Amino acid sequence: MTAPVDLLLHGATLLDASIASRPAKGPRGRRAPDTAVWVRGDRIMAVGPLADLKARAGRKAKRLDLKGGTLTPGFTDAHIHLVTWIRALGEPWLRAQDTRSIEIAAAERAKAAPGEEWLLLRGWVPREWAPSERSRALLDRIAPERPLVLHAVDGHSVWGNRAAFERAGIDDRGGDPPGGSVERDRSGAPTGVLIEEARKLMTERIRRATPTRDDLAAAIAKARSLGITSAHDFDRAGTWRAAAELEREGKLRFRLLLSVPVSSLEAGETLGLAAGLGGERLRVGPVKMFADGTLGSATALLEEPYEGSGDRGIEVTPPAELAAACARAADAGLSVAIHAIGDRAVRHALDAIESCLLAGKRFPLPPRVEHVQLSRSEDWERFHRLGVLASVQPIHQLTDRAVARLHWGRRTARSYAWKSLAGAGARLAFGSDAPFDRAGPLLGLQAALLRREGEEPPDEAFHPEQRIRLARALRAHLEEGHRAAGWPLHLGRLAPGFAADLVHFDHDLRETAVDRWHRVRAVRTWVGGSQAYGPTRRG
């Protein structure tokens, strides 16, 4: 058996939530260039002065001078769609919300994939097209024979041409499915837009290859290049097979928590899946279910109507069904993750979880509500009291602030309320929701700390009273995601006994203004003490 390799990493600022919360000792404190991290095998042995650790580790220890920058623990993205993200990076996105953009993107897709049955485009923003402007006829002119489908930027609605409707077998006279709607013009004919659960009438007929090990390996490699060493994946169920192949081959080099779609709950019960089942790299996560839609598609479920409208959004899953699904998940040994964006949906999600707890049921992992973009102040304390994790994406409040102001008006004062939730005792875990928003932990931290894009003027901040401190933001991106996954090892800190999942960034984050963090890049990433991204070290 080969003896563990000792590695001394030094010459960079050290940063994690515990370090960020301490007052600096002198001008640089823990940033002293002689402070080192001693790694043996897949664990951190010690953190301290380089001279001391050299003596303890012995002469065989390999030293790596990082020559500046910052060394942090590896980050967790607590909500991402890995395979969809990596595929989306290679697909045409609409550059503008006009017909010409659709024509260009469709031509690019047709040229790049001449053998594909469907022309699939991304980046359509429904709110930027008036109902009178979107029709199947418009798309028919662009692609008269081939099925053309535009996926909305938030993933919760699609717009297709007549060929797409025919290929999917959608009857123009059919009604709305539960939890969704088929948009119609004044004559009652479909416009081509399918919203929420109605979109599945089409998307489930689109034959896309199931996730392969190569898809997943590419997504993981991209994630590691951003400083992400673990993720909670909310993509398609087939990801498990691809991940298991990589794990069997010893090539996973990542920590992955895979959710179970609510549609697969019965199969999970039959197979005896249990939350937390797995090892140190691959584990079963919560059952994913939907309480509502999204803000961008105006389908988030609200207590009061959207501004200037009588509409309150879409109840994708009725409260009684939501509670029943939570109970089934708990009985099967699974936890739950409930998508809830509007304030009524958040209330319904908390009610469903509370009904299970009151019935004496327990979840093996912390139950969670995903997104929590608009919430009632009386529900903030409920997250803490019920032990529910608020799984949120700080980048969303920048992407969505204009439409939030449009649709929610004064209610935006309690939107993306990370500080208020944390102040009420709620645990926050940060993610990106890529590809439906931008991936990268430093982008998320920047958004949480500034409430504005990096180089925008300070007065552009969106409800700056909801900014949170660096230590809390780091805890949400480094530690809480690990705890929510129930990993059987310590993750997320630069401390003895913790896993050697590490990232070296090219700037000193303690000396770099936060509004410039979007320019910072990862240089190296280690997973379990093994370098998984970056230049090969010589010697």
Descriptive notes:
- By secondary structure, the protein is α/β, with parallel strands linked by helices.
- The chain contains 18 helices and 22 strands.
- Strands 7-13-14-15-16-17-18-19 form an eight-stranded parallel beta sheet. It has a five-stranded mixed beta sheet with strand order 2-6-20-21-22, with helices on one face. Strands 8-9-10-12-11 form a five-stranded mixed beta sheet.
- The radius of gyration is 24 Å and the shape is globular.
- Residues 25-30 have low confidence and may be disordered.
Keywords:
single chain; 539 residues; alpha/beta; eight-stranded parallel sheet; five-stranded mixed sheet; globular
Low-confidence stretches: 25-30
Oligomeric state of the chains present here: single chain
The amount of helix comes to 25-40%
Give the beta-strand count.
Answer: 22
**Apparent shape:** globular
* Sheet of most strands: 8 strands, parallel
Percentage of β-strand residues? 15-25%
Radius of gyration: 24 Å
Give the end-to-end Cα distance, rounded to a whole number of Å.
23 Å
Strand order of the largest sheet: 7-13-14-15-16-17-18-19
Helix tally? 18
Structural class: alpha/beta
Mean pLDDT score, rounded?
A: 89
